[in-house]
Amino acid sequence: MEAVVFIFSLIDGCALIFLSVYFIITLSDLECDYINARSCCSKLNKWVVPKLTGHTIVPILMLISLHWFIFLLNLPVATWNIYQFIMVPSGNMGVFDPTEIHNQGQLKTHMKEAMIKLGFHLLCFFMYLYSMILALINDLTWKEMLKLGVLHYSEQLRSQK
Amino acid sequence: MSAPAGAPHPHAAASARIPPRLGAPAPAGPGPRYQNGPAQNQMQFPPGYGLHPQGYGVPSGLYSQGPGKSTPLPLESQYGTDYYSGHYTVPTQNVTLAPGPSTMNMQLGSQQVYGRGPLAPQTVGSTPGSFPGSVASSASHLHTGRPQPYSSFDNHYNSPVIPSANSSIASQGFPLTSGHYAMSTASGAVYPSVSYPSVPAGDPYGQVFTSQSTSVITQFKENSFPGQNTAISHPQQQQQQQQQQQQQQQQSPMGYNTSSWATPGLQSTQDNLTQNHIGSLATVGNPSSADSSSCPGKQNIQLPKTSSAPPTVSSGSVSARKQPTTDQATNPVVSGIQPPELLLQEGMQYGGYVNNQASSAPTPSSSTSDDEEEEEEDEEAAIDSSSTTSSASPVPNSFDVLEGGTYPGETMDTLSSSTSSPAPALSVPQATKPAKPFGYGYPTLQPGYQNVGLGSGTQPSNPAYSGFQQYAQYPGMNQLSSSLSGLSLQHSSQQPESLRPVNLTQDRNILPVTPVLAPVPNLSSDLKKLNCNPHSFRCTLTNIPQTQALLNKAKLPLGLLLHPFRDLTQLPVITSSTIVRCRSCRTYINPFVSFIDQRRWKCNLCYRVNDVPEEFMYNPLIRSYGEPHKRPEVQNSTVEFIASSDYMLRPPQPAVYLFVLDVSHNAVEAGYLTIVCQSLLENLDKLPGDSRTRIGFITFDSTVHFYNLQEGLSQPQMLIVSDIDDIFLPTPDSLLVNLHESKELIKDLLNALPNMFTYTRETHSALGPALQAAFKLMSPTGGRVSVFQTQLPSLGAGLLQSREDPNQRSSTKVVQHLGPATDFYKKLALDCSGQQTAVDLFLLSSQYSDLASLACMSKYSAGCIYYYPSFHHTHNPSQAEKLQKDLKRYLTRKIGFEAVMRIRCTKGLSIHTFHGNFFVRSTDLLSLANINPDAGFAVQMSIEENLTDTSLVCFQTALLYTSSKGERRIRVHTLCLPVVSSLADVYAGVDVQAAICLLANMAVDRSISSSLSDARDALVNAVVDSLSAYSQTSSNSQQSALIAPTSLKLFPLYVLALLKQKAFRTGTSTRLDDRVFAMCQMKCQPLIHLMKIIHPNLYRIDKLTDEGAIHVNDRIVPQPPLQKLSAEKLTREGAFLMDAGSVIYIWIGKSCDNNFIKDVLGYPDYASVPPKLTHLPELDTLYSERTRSFLSWLIDNRPLSPVLHVIKDESPAKTDFFQHLVEDRTEAAFSYYEFLLHVQQQICK
């Protein structure tokens, strides 16, 4: 069961990494004037909710499976995302608003945020990976491993001896 | 200066900073830059010079420094030499002639000689000759003033500078110049000695070179020449005289410089030969050392490194200095000695500098102890002074004249210490000012003030008033002094003046009697002439700080205010197949680029060297070839290009106008349709456009109605679409029709429209669907959509709820709903903007209509917003009249379609926030579907890279648009500003009006994104921060007083006025729509209009006289003095006119003179004047004529004709009038005096 949680987290982490990279690419496109603010923002706003979901699911899972450390690690980021999403003024077109993204250095702020998130997701990714392997090893009994074929050959070798 | 001896380091430092401002106000700009430039980046600047020969004259001295460094660039150096060569020759002449009239010049010359050009005048024969000459020339320049530089202008390259118009010597020098020319070109060294010696013939001092040692007395004599010396030098000298002690000199760095300068002059006068010798010696010594450091052959030897060393040197020099005062001969010796030291430490330039400082020994020592920054400042100061001498002689002169020696002295004194040792004449007025007795009265007065209420004119009774009157004298004094001095060129006074400390709590009369003008950037006179008109382009800081750190220290906003499409009476239009632009940053060629040679120019924004295209070599205006710098593009900072097809994405669109009219019951009831249709009928032929102009109409209530106006129909056909959830165009082709082909049908429609819906029972408004339809209709072409709306949209997409809680109108806490409720209008605006369609909103409602949401349709599509609260055609005739007038202007004014605007600025500056109505499409590209002449913009900037290697920064606005005639045009404005490195200079250059307008924009943003109270706090903090930062820099002894530099003296007043604006006020009942509209106005009004809204002008008009009147079109327009906005100024016996931008009030006191009522208003007595009067009758009396000509002059100065309200004292409308009296206390807001106390309290915290 433990392993399943982490496998899911790992997949989720992967998706979030890709999403972060996508955000960074799109924002830098805007910075370099390859796309205009309108299309940039509509592109990004589309992915805000999926990203938010991805962010929130992990801490919830961890809370359920009682992994306190990872839960606490993810909590602030998830909270920040939810806060950001809720606090969008009613007249704005989403977290990314084309009419404001060029004002007051918002673009730079968004860029920085995306970078930090990317780093965070990478960190999480490796943590999930490690935890997953650990969980897999702990979870599986020898027999299960044999069933799964993981220890198949070594078993054979032993029997031969 | 009274405390000179005691003056410790801080004083010295302060004084050092000050001098540049005071003495070198106008010149300082160029001078400092140059010096900086040369020392640091010679390369960049020199080219600029090349472009502007005029500028050269001034800078030349600077250049000279530059050349040493710049030598690497052969081309530039050559040019520079050429330019200077003229100068050089002059100097040589000077040397021979040796009569350097002006102390200032002398100083410069001396500085140059010592610091830069080691060469003695004698040596001049070869290269050295150039030096001295240059020095002298510099002096002459100062004296002569601008004319000379101009002359040089014509022949940049060859022509000798004609600088010394004043001095016969200079003329003599000219012939020599040619010879020098060769010399200069040959040797890079020549550059250094750029200074122009146009010393007046009368001046004995001409030879300034050696100049290190000055006898105080001689200095004084020099001072006697008003025009010659910079103001600073005079005051110092005066001070010196008073004290007669060298110590004094030491205390004030300024004094040092001046004294040192002056001394040279004296020396020169006395013994030219000896001086020359001395100078030569010194120079020789320098050169040798210099050679080691810099270019050996060159006399210039400017040590590229501007090290802070001068102070140390100065210390040595100080001692020397004292000696010089006593004996000239000794001085020279000293100087000779010093130079080497200087050289060793800093470099030739500094050496010169050092010498000056040395004379003012104390400062240098202090500076050494101080931080590097301070040292730099000192250097700059010295530089400034030198520059001033060299470059803008006129300014300094004027300074002197205006202020008399005293002012500078005062400023010095005030800065350093409260006591002042002003010049005699001026001193008196000044003394009055500082005299605080009045101030004491102030607080007591205040209450009475407010109590005075409706204009009981008890002013005289109050003691404060007397103080006041004295104050009033102040300007008069200035005028007097100026008239006395007479000779000076007027401009300059501002700069020195701008730093004079003002005690805000004691100076009751800070509002000037004449309207506040934009400060003139501290540039050389030729650059000044070329610079962009401040009405089009203004910067909050006319002296740009060198680093972001410095900007942060000053606590002032840095930004630009633009009015790019303003109606211009004179605009050079250039038709050319190639528009010359920088290849890397795409900057348009402008007057501030530099021509490296005939074939190449250097961009002033990115410093790239570009080729001059062949076509550009020919000047069609004067039909000459080979003079690219005389092309109109390079002679005007505002030009318009006719663009080629490269600048089009599609063929230029025709003018397309669509009118979307609300015809619900509410709208019919308000009766606006008649006015709109009538105005349209009247102006149908005046709509800007060509034969392709198209027009269309949509009306809506709960359904959307289209009008088929296809040519050939017998009458307009109305098509009703009731499916508002999925709007479509019934006949896409015939809804927008050619104006000329279908004119009859259109007229029929306009005549029929007002009566078509008279009996409608439809109360709903489907604005959203109507706008969607409009968008669909317009998207193939783009154009202008004018929306007339009278109520909250209640149907279909974009419907809105009422969000206003009337009970919260006067809440002091939270003001909600300043932002839009839905993103529908924003999205629509962006869609429109993408299709080059602008939406203009006319909101004529009597109830809450959620302007905050509706305004989005105009904000982001570059439209404009008009708001007529409680509009009704009969019940509210003044609003009806206003709509009529606005429509007339709106329909007939110029318009540009499918426009984009880009604002570029010199590398190192970056624009991070934009204010106005537009959509920012990419980082610096503003997408403007339409541009109209009444739209203003603002941007905020930050300094991303230090500007240490440049002395000038430029900003360029390029507006590309399609005119109504289908021409693609580019309007380019270029603004050039100096860079400064000292905080004092930054404060000296504050444009307080621009800063206020920018702050207003920022506060609007803040109140929408955060909260209104945040924005208010931020406004107050802006005042607190900037004033406390200033008081820290000035190291003023009067810590308890609230001190502001003159440039900022109106800052607290304006901020208070802002806080009392509808947009930001709290506690007073303000309808949400009114508040939001006021915010929209702040965002999109150009500066001049916004300032009138923020701080209206109040005049007393019952006793207009022709005194000081101006003549406009054969009419005499009286110019009554401005009154401050306080009920204290209103008297029952008077009549007052308040010009508040879109409204003009005339308030009539209860016991107003019957003659005025009879002659001007045409009624027998006060009681018979009707309560609502909106016109002045045309009576054939003198008073009436004067009043009307004054009124029409006010009205003619703005595009929107304001509505006139004549208000009687007891009429209910008087609250409208009294709410503009911002200096008085209201139930919810501070009076001006209370506000000052509040600020002071905050500062002391």
What does this structure look like?
In chain A, 79% of the residues lie in helices and 0% in strands. Chain A is mostly helical and 161 residues long. In chain A, helix 1 (2-31) packs antiparallel against helix 4. Chain A is elongated and about 70 Å long. The mean pLDDT of chain A is 83. Chain B is 45% helix and 14% strand. Chain B contains 48 helices and 34 strands. The chains are: A mainly alpha (161), B alpha+beta (1245). The interface between A and B is medium-sized, with 19 and 25 residues.
TL;DR?
By secondary structure, chain A is mostly helical. Chain A is 79% helix and 0% strand. The radius of gyration of chain A is 21 Å and the shape is elongated.
**So what's the oligomer here?**
heterodimer
Main structural class of chain B? alpha+beta
Helix content of chain A: over 70%
Task: Please outline the major beta sheet of chain A.
Answer: none
Give the C-alpha Rg of chain A.
Answer: 21 Å
In percent terms, what proportion of residues of chain B is strand? 5-15%
Low-confidence stretches of chain B: 1-495
What global shape of chain A is seen?
elongated
What is the strand content of chain A? Answer: under 5%
Q: Please, how many helices of chain B?
A: 48
Count of individual beta strands of chain B: 34
Write down how many β-strands of chain A occur, each being a DSSP E stretch of 2 or more residues.
0
Poorly predicted tracts of residues of chain A: none
The major beta sheet of chain B can be summarized as: 8 strands, mixed
SSE succession of chain A: HHHHHH
| Shape annotation of chain B | globular
Biggest interface, and residues per chain? A-B, 19 and 25 residues
User: Please, what is the average pLDDT of chain B?
Assistant: 66
